[in-house]
Amino acid sequence: MIDETGERPVKPMSVEHEELFHPWGTVTPAFWGSRQEAGVAMPHIPQVLRGRLTEIAATVAASRLPDAAWMAFRLDTDVTAEYGPEHLNTVHVREVRAHLAYLAGDHATSLGWYLHTARLRATIQGPRHPDTEEATRRVYSLWRTVPEADAPALGAELLGVLTDIHGPEAAVARRTRRRLQALAGAGADADVRASQEFRGIT
Question: What does pTM read for this prediction?
Fold first, then answer.
């Protein structure tokens, strides 16, 4: 079944009735090498940059995430100096940094990077470009995986970016609002239960 975004939803066991667009997939040395192998949209990037991305992927595959993160930081610095911040090569490297933060379990940092790159894609490619739309769906899916204690604050930031890029009635913005409302309701219920338990104890 195709949903209102035109995408076929993937429904993991832990997220019923929701789309889940995985941040990047399985990291292998070839992962960032081609669009076909990775299964994600990628710009045409120079061979030198492609080689450095492949080295980062190999470092991740060797379970050396801190080293990979440092390599990605250095690559980001070099690429930004060469191409400037508003270039697809720069965006791509920063999406890699977002993915590395995700692999390290730092969801807040990962979400921040993905929001940043979604804004850049909207500026460079336009809000209706398939890559921009995929980027915003990806960051929504990442937000769905963060701990519930962190989700409201991060979700508010996410909703602001989604609204800026796609408008308040875009499908992904509506999903985010529904999720935020559900979280607010769950938080209120938890407060009531805690209050009742406290009164019962005293």
Answer: 0.71
Closest by CA to 73, choosing from 45, 52, 43, is: 52
DSSP 168: T
CA separation for the pair 197, 178 (Å, rounded)? 29
pLDDT tens for 54-104 read 999 999 999 999 999 999 999 999 999 999 999 999 999 999 999 999 899
Query: What would you report as the CA-atom Rg of the chain, rounded to the nearest whole angstrom?
Result: 19
The amino acid occupying position 4 is E
Burial per residue of 164-201, b for 16 or more beta-carbon CB atoms within 10 angstroms, e otherwise: ebbeeebbbbebbeebbeeeeeeeeeeeeeeeeeeeee
Residues 6+ away with beta carbon under 8 Å from 120: 85, 86, 90, 91, 94
**CA-based angle 60:64:67, to the nearest 5?**
100
Q: Tokens 């990605």 correspond to what residue?
A: 72
What's the rounded Cα separation, in Å, for the pair 175 and 166?
13
> The tokens 């450095």 sit on which residue?
52
Q: Which amino acid is at 185?
A: G
Is the separation of the CB atoms in 114 and 91 below 8 Å? no
